[in-house]
Amino acid sequence: MKKKFTFSFGSTVIIQPGIPVIADIIDSPNRVLVVCDTNTEYIARNIIGFQRTPICVLAPGENSKKWDSVETILSAAHKAGLDRDGFFIAVGGGVIGDLTSFAASIYKRGAGLCIVATTLLGMIDASIGGKTGFDLFNLKNIVGTFYPASIVFMPTQTLSTLSEREWKSGMAELIKIAVLDEDDNFLSDLEQEQNPDHESLIEFIERAVQIKGKIIEYDPDETGFKRILLNLGHTFGHALESTAGLGKVSHGEAIAWGLARACVLGQRIGITPPDRAEKILAILQKSGYETGARHPLCSDMNSLLEAMQSDKKKKLNSLRFIVPALKSAVVLSAETIDPDILHSVLDY
Ligand SMILES: NC(=O)c1ccc[n+]([C@@H]2O[C@H](COP(=O)([O-])OP(=O)(O)OC[C@H]3O[C@@H](n4cnc5c(N)ncnc54)[C@H](O)[C@@H]3O)[C@@H](O)[C@H]2O)c1
Questions:
Q1: Dist. CA 250 → ligand 1 center (Å)
Q2: How far is residue 282's CA from residue 220's CA, in Å, rounded to a whole number?
């Protein structure tokens, strides 16, 4: 069954079991560059079929999320003679999606873009809403643009080859989006179905796409107070990713740990109701995420706090934390938080 959602920020999302073919994306395959990694190349080859479409294959993983890869994509587009009306098709998870979207956003001041999301995390989060970018100075997503793909395909059959680690990484962002659901039903449903069958999983993906899509429609460029809520768990999580060494901990696992820390912080400053914090922590623990104050891959509070200071969410030089509230979540400026409480959340 095919499901289609169209959002006011310019993206049409198509969730379907099968891998799309190039004719589903664009009428002229001559104006296309397909970008994938070595793990998603088989999906990209399926999309292209017998067309002679240029393809750019990168190494997989977070370590590829750097300027060199953007240059490789831009150079492949140039060699392929792509014009401004050309089309980039990203086939992969969040890394390939973010890199290709960034390249598309700057190539000849903006070319066409389609994302074929092939990880759970890519489907429920990274492919929607137009955040593009790459890592620099060992810091996550420090360079980027807003550039939503006009078409996003989510071929759910591709999820069958995901590793356990990547599966777990995607489930963490699913839990985060469920926490942001205003009516809280999503979180309760996830609590009941920790190992969803294929049908329930598709339903969860659809719900996550709609929740994230609505938030972005409301606040497309994160100038308001809505889109930033999607960074729940990220102030702690990104700091962990940087401190542990990019790629050492998966993005989702870092966000799960960050979400746990945000719950504890929220509870200690009286914003997250204790039963809600307990419910979220219980779901994270049952799903096998690290939720303790000290993460095994980070034993140095100063490096963590230092990495937090480089966070993109800083405004007027003030670090911001997002913590779960009675419903959804709220944004807090670090100045409103007693440093001793913040340190106690990291248990040092
Ligand atoms: N733009 C956004 O709004 C946004 C939101 C959330 C996360 N992100 C970014 O997304 C990235 C994480 O995304 P990710 O978790 O998809 O990581 P990823 O893109 O590195 O993919 C994870 C691994 O799975 C492999 N893979 C992809 N599809 C596969 C498939 N169908 N079968 C088997 N293996 C497959 C990849 O090759 C890679 O090794 C991070 O860099 C994060 O910053 C971006």
A1: 9
A2: 32
